[in-house]
């Protein structure tokens, strides 16, 4: 048993959109969510949930699912698979850290995100300009 819970918080909820501009017209312009960052190269944009640290991530190439923040993707995979879960994909490096997908023993898909490299930095239009260490 882990000394601390493995799943720390919901980092983001990913929602599939046909293209970022259409997604932004709906989630930002119509529903009022503030754009935090946009990465056209990845086909993703993050929007603020004002009463939570959880982001809405709209994406052109990812299925809808929650993304769980973990301290270490490698350790989380080890604990989850030892408890009967299964590694589905990864781990792989992403601009802000590492990510992997696992399933629990019941078939629920869990996306594990480690922000070991930091958080996106952006320009005044929300375009990603780099990554800075978390404070």
From TrEMBL:
Q: Locate the coiled-coil region(s) and give their ranges.
A: none
For the VOC domain, which residue ranges apply?
A: 9-115
Per UniProt, what is one Pfam family of this protein? Glyoxalase
Q: What is the designated name of this protein?
A: VOC family protein
From which source organism is this entry?
Answer: Kribbella sp. HUAS MG21
């Amino acid at each position: 048993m882990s000394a601390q819970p493995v799943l720390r918080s919901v980092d983001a909820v990913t929602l599939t959109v046909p293209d970022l501009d259409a997604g932004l017209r709906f989630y930002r312009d119509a529903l009022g969510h503030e754009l935090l960052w946009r990465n056209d190269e990845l086909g993703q944009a993050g929007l603020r949930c004002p009463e939570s640290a959880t982001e809405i991530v709209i994406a052109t190439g990812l299925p809808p699912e929650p993304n769980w923040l973990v301290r270490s993707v490698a350790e989380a995979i080890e604990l989850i698979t030892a408890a009967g879960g299964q590694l589905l994909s990864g781990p792989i490096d992403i601009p802000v850290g590492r990510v992997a997908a696992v399933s629990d023993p019941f078939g629920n898909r869990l996306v594990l995100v480690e922000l070991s490299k930091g958080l996106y930095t952006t320009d005044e239009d929300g375009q990603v300009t780099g990554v800075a260490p978390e404070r």
